[in-house]
From TrEMBL:
Coiled coil: none
All copies of domain D-isomer specific 2-hydroxyacid dehydrogenase NAD-binding, residue ranges: 102-277
Annotated GO MF terms: NAD binding; oxidoreductase activity, acting on the CH-OH group of donors, NAD or NADP as acceptor
Transmembrane segments: none
Domain D-isomer specific 2-hydroxyacid dehydrogenase catalytic: 52-308
Name recorded for this polypeptide: Phosphoglycerate dehydrogenase-like oxidoreductase
Organism name: Natronococcus occultus SP4
Annotated InterPro entries: D-isomer_2_OHA_DH_cat_dom (IPR006139), D-isomer_DH_CS (IPR029753), D-isomer_DH_NAD-bd (IPR006140), Dhydh_Halo (IPR054891), NAD(P)-bd_dom_sf (IPR036291)
Pfam families attached to this UniProt entry: 2-Hacid_dh (PF00389), 2-Hacid_dh_C (PF02826)
Annotated family: Belongs to the D-isomer specific 2-hydroxyacid dehydrogenase family.
Length: 309
């Protein structure tokens, strides 16, 4: 059954990514009422576009998540109540790919060191052999879906050899070699960069543990732009402190915001970004396109795109 939508709310939780009014204004020509709402106005809507989950959403017909990851939503409850859940997979691939490329370039050209030195007004050139170039390096992208394929496309254009890990191990366009998930430790063993783009599921929680870090080369870098709990943060810190890894670039964490007491903040070879790898000025426009398409599909009696539940 298609949801019957008369009023669509843009929940104010999206404010941390883009102004909710921008999205609401861009959708003002839809044949449904669109309004920015807070928690006290959820019951006035039939559908909502949101970053966060609220239990009151269980009374609606349709929820659209502005992220691809939907681990915050209670699938069983949504199915029981007959609430449609869609996500925003497919819009972040290039954006996140460029962010990952910036991490790799920072490590290769030591840009993170220079920025840190600037804060101290310190003129300090790197050692002659500290810098390197990306062509000829290998990046193992763990998760070859839309996000991972976008990362592979951007890095491939920089001369990086791309390998991947997926459940089946079947070949994927843009990847020189693909390993099955059960061969993760073999897959990461020879990579200069290991890039996590996985969603959070019971199967992926703490998938990256001490054993996986032990299998990585001690001059390799970890990048996580998937979900924080996919990485066992304590095991990662142990590996970094023991020089078992060269460094890490992390956009997602087990606890967000990253607690002030986390050792990751002060590690010289760790780049911390605040879960913003996909942030661009066009974010709300891309979300608007997905919402618009589904409203049109519902009107035509067609199935929703990007349906999760």
């Amino acid at each position: 059954m298609q949801p019957d939508i008369e009023r669509l709310g843009v929940h104010d939780s999206v404010e941390s990514v883009f102004p909710p009014s921008e999205l609401a204004d861009s959708l003002s020509d839809l044949p449904v009422e669109v309004a920015v709402i807070g928690d006290d106005e959820i019951d006035s809507c039939d559908a909502v576009v949101t970053l966060e989950h609220r239990d009151a959403f269980l009374e609606l017909a349709w929820i659209h998540s502005i992220q691809a990851g939907v681990d915050r939503f209670p699938f069983d409850d949504l199915e029981e109540r007959g609430v449609l859940l869609t996500n925003s997979t497919g819009i972040h691939d290039r954006w996140v790919g460029e962010t990952v490329a910036s991490y790799l370039l920072a490590f290769a050209r030591r840009l993170h060191e220079h920025v840190a030195n600037q804060q101290e007004r310190r003129w300090e050139q790197p050692a002659w052999d500290d810098g390197f170039t990306l062509p000829g390096t290998t990046a193992c992208v763990v998760g070859t879906g839309t996000l991972g394929s976008g990362v592979a496309e951007v890095l491939g254009s920089l001369g990086v050899r791309i390998t991947g890990v997926r459940r089946s191990g079947d070949p994927v366009e843009g990847f020189a070699e693909v390993y099955a998930s059960e061969d993760l430790e073999d897959a990461v063993a020879d990579a200069d960069f290991v890039i996590v783009t996985l969603p959070l599921t019971e199967a992926t929680r703490h998938l990256f543990d001490a054993d996986v870090f032990g299998a990585m080369a001690d001059d390799a870098y970890l990048v996580n732009v998937g979900r924080g709990p996919v990485v066992d943060e304590d095991a990662l810190i142990d590996a970094l402190e023991a020089d078992g890894l060269a460094g890490a670039a992390l956009d997602v964490f087990e606890t967000e915001p990253l607690p002030a007491e986390s050792p990751l903040w002060e590690m010289d070879e760790v780049i911390v970004t605040p879960h913003c790898a996909a942030f661009t000025e066009d974010y709300y426009r891309a979300i608007g396109d997905l919402v618009r398409e589904n409203v049109e599909r519902f009107a035509e009696g067609e199935a929703a795109t990007n349906r999760v539940v």
